[in-house]
Amino acid sequence: MNDMSALVHPAKGQPATLLHLVDKKGFDTWLGGQPERVRQAVAAQGFKGEGFQLAILPGEKEGWSALLGVANVDELSPWCLAKAAETLPEGTYRVADRSPGPAVLGWLLGQYRFERYKKEPSKKGPRILLTDDPARIDETALIAEATNLVRDLVNIPAGELGPAELQKAAEALASECGASVAVTSGADLAAGYPMIHAVGMAATAERAPRLIELEWGDPRNPRLAIVGKGVVFDSGGLDIKPAAGMRLMKKDMGGAAHALALARLVMKSRLPVRLHLLIPAVENAISGAAFRPGDVLRSRKGLTVEIGNTDAEGRLILGDALSKAAEDKPELILDFATLTGAARIALGPDLPPVFANRDDLAEDLLKGGEAVSDPVWRMPLWKHYEEMLASDIADLGNAADSPMAGSVTAALFLQKFVPDEIAWAHFDTFAWRPAAKPGRPKGGDALGLRAAWQMLRARYRK
């Protein structure tokens, strides 16, 4: 994660290569007004005004400019300039005759590279964009930095990012923003956070489980809790995953990455809240100390949970963390988790389901996502499916016998640990892009982060 504000500068008349924007409906009219050299160059490059197309235009005597295809020149999306940012050479650029508006975000995110393990990283220099809307720079740069923080954390292999490294990430954030961090780890979890302890106790001592808590802000402000699932690697436990299911499990801490990124946005923007960030960080490993199918765990809240499947571990650690968050009576709790494959089956990789116990909160999240092109979809907390979590010997089970409604039953399990009087929303995010799109490379990514931030800004910013 770098300082993204270095890639966008206020326009003050400095030299820059022009970027001409055109959409398909206006392309023929635009082309008809160009000199022959431009028409020939456009034809030679097969440019037809389609989205994300790019053509280099020769200058009258020297120099050049670029022609970019966008979906709609009258309503730019965050991704209109992303392909150009990925492909254009190092230099300074300016959109001709207009402000880039929300497309600044894609310009920044299009230059992300994860090359930590490359022998020869890309040597391509920065592409700087000029804008006549300087008020947008700081906010957009912060969002880009938050997104790239999620990407970096999710992309790091599990062998190099364990619970201790998540703790270090939280401590670095606290140091940067003037927050405090408290950590409960190892055997100390057993009494207060028994489900976090049970899930993580099969890992080595160096990768001991822990609950990481960060506090920031004026205690007089409304209390906001953000919780993120930090399973740094998920083998499935004794109900072991097949190899194909385990391949991407370095990303099972994607909820924690989202929570850290959202907390950074809150603190860097000085949002008038009292922030409580909670990350239960564990490795769901296999050893003689692993928890077992059929075990009964007592939660922090006092509810007993029969283990039907050790691969449904994320909801267990979140249950204890949500209970702790609720004890301080926050006005709002948001949790992020790469919780269920059922969510991907229902909505695919790009559309995170969100569950909320308040209609107005759900509506604000949907509107926020739509406003910033970070869509989410509300799923139901359908109480009739609570019977699928019934247990013969405990207060509830952690997994239904049926594969149906898997994301709903997981959310219903979490709801058991949130008091009805506290507003709560749960994001079942994928935190991963299986295929690249302009500004959104294959690999770890933030999905639902900007929607949540847009909602928080609208709710709390003075």
TrEMBL record:
Ranges in coiled-coil conformation: none
SUPFAM superfamilies, per database record: Zn-dependent exopeptidases
Domain of life of the source: Bacteria
Pfam family, one: Peptidase_M17
Cited Gene3D superfamilies: Leucine Aminopeptidase, subunit E, domain 1 (3.40.220.10), Zn peptidases (3.40.630.10)
This protein's GO CC annotations: cytoplasm
GO BP annotations listed: proteolysis
Hydrolase keyword on record: yes
Keywords, alphabetical: Aminopeptidase, Hydrolase, Manganese, Protease
Residue ranges of domain Cytosol aminopeptidase in the record: 309-316
Molecular function GO labels: manganese ion binding; metalloaminopeptidase activity
InterPro entries xref list: Leucine_aapep/pepB, Macro_dom-like, Peptidase_M17_C, Peptidase_M17_N_1
Family note: Belongs to the peptidase M17 family.
Protein name in the entry: Aminopeptidase
Organism: Allosphingosinicella humi
Highest classification ranks of the organism: Bacteria, Pseudomonadati, Pseudomonadota, Alphaproteobacteria, Sphingomonadales
